[in-house]
Amino acid sequence: MTLIDADASVVPSRGVSLAEPGDYVALLKPRVMSLVMLTAVTGFMVAPGHIHPLLGAVAMLCIAIGAGASGALNMWYDADIDRLMARTAKRPIPLGRIERREALAFGLTLSVFSVVVLGLTVNLVAAGLLAFTIFFYAVIYTMLLKRTTPQNIVIGGAAGAFPPMVGWACSTGTISIESITLFMIIFLWTPPHFWALALFKLKDYGSAGVPMMPNVAGEASTKRQIFAYSLILAPVGVAPYVLGFAGPVYGVASAILGLIFVLHAYRTLKMPDGDVKMVAAKKLFGFSIVYLFTLFALLLGEAVVARAWTMVGA
C-alpha cells in the first residue's frame, strides 16, 4: 500500500494511477450514501404500492449508485477547494490518488448506468427523478450555487431531499403529498444542519472562498436563521403522523425530537459571536444527524412492522 502525506503535493505520472479500490469507494461518499439509502428505502417501504422484491432490490441499488455518482461528480468539480479545507483535504483527488478526469468518467458512467437500469426495470418516473437529483446536485448545487451564493445550501439542499421521493416513485410510479412531506423534512433540516457546521468551520470555508452564510451574513444572522428554520422544521417533522402515514410512536417521538432540536437551535442563537469553542453549534450539528436518522428509522420500522403484520394476517 502506498502511503501519501496529506500535506504533500503528489501527482501521479501520466498513465500511472495510485488508486486502490478504497479510493473509488471514497469518491462515492459512503457516509452520505448511507443516509440517502435510509431515506430512499423509507420512502419505498412507506409507499402503498407493491413491486416484486427483486425489482425493489434493483431499485434501491440504482438509487445507491446514483447517490455515489453524485458524490464522485462533486469531488471532481470541487477538487481545487477540497485541497484547501482540512475537512476534505484527505479525499482521493487532493491526495493525488485519483485524477480529476478519472473521477469525472467514473461519476458519469455510474450516473448513466443507474438511471438507465432504473428506467428499464422499475419505471420512468423514478428514473426521471433520479436523473434530476444527480443533475441538481452536480450542476445546480456544485457548479452553479456553491461558490456564488450564501443560499447555496438552502436551494441545493433539495438534492439531498429527493431520495425518499425517488423511493416512493419506485413503489407507486407517482409523486404524492406523502412523498413531498418526506422531501420537506429533509429540505428544511438541511440549512440548520450545514449552517451549524459552517459556524465552527468558518475559517475552513473562508480559506476556500465558499460563501457559506456565516462568512457572508455573519454569525448573528446565521444563528437567527438557524433558529427560524428549526421552528418550521419541528412541526413539519410531525406531519407524517398528522397526515396518517406514520403511527403514534413516530408521532410522539418526532414531537419530542423536534422540541430538542429547537432547544439546541435556541442555545446556538444565544451563543456569543466569536465563541472559539462553538460548543452549542457543535451539539446542534451532532443532534441534527441523530434527529433525521431517528425520524426515518422510525418511519421505516413502522412500515416494516405494518407489512409483516399484514402478511401474518393474510
TrEMBL record:
Lineage: Bacteria, Pseudomonadati, Pseudomonadota, Alphaproteobacteria, Hyphomicrobiales
Catalytic activity: heme b + (2E,6E)-farnesyl diphosphate + H2O = Fe(II)-heme o + diphosphate
Regions crossing the membrane: 32-51, 57-77, 103-120, 126-145, 166-189, 241-263, 284-309
One Gene Ontology term, aspect cellular component: plasma membrane
Pathway: Porphyrin-containing compound metabolism; heme O biosynthesis; heme O from protoheme: step 1/1
Source organism of this protein record: Consotaella salsifontis
Alphabetically ordered keywords of this record: Cell membrane, Heme biosynthesis, Membrane, Transferase, Transmembrane, Transmembrane helix
GO biological process, alphabetically ordered: heme O biosynthetic process
Protein name: Protoheme IX farnesyltransferase
NCBIfam families: cyoE_ctaB, PRK04375.1-2
Functional note: Converts heme B (protoheme IX) to heme O by substitution of the vinyl group on carbon 2 of heme B porphyrin ring with a hydroxyethyl farnesyl side group.
Taxonomy, superkingdom: Bacteria
Name of the gene: ctaB
Record InterPro entries: Protohaem_IX_farnesylTrfase, UbiA_prenyltransferase, UbiA_prenylTrfase_CS, UbiA_sf
Family the UniProt entry places it in: Belongs to the UbiA prenyltransferase family. Protoheme IX farnesyltransferase subfamily.
Subcellular location: Cell membrane
CDD domains membership: PT_UbiA_Cox10
Enzyme Commission number(s) of this protein: 2.5.1.141
Gene3D superfamilies linked: UbiA prenyltransferase (1.10.357.140)
One of the record's GO molecular function terms: protoheme IX farnesyltransferase activity
Extra information: Carbon 2 of the heme B porphyrin ring is defined according to the Fischer nomenclature.
Topology within the bilayer: Multi-pass membrane protein
Pfam families: UbiA
HAMAP family listed in its UniProt record: CyoE_CtaB (MF_00154)
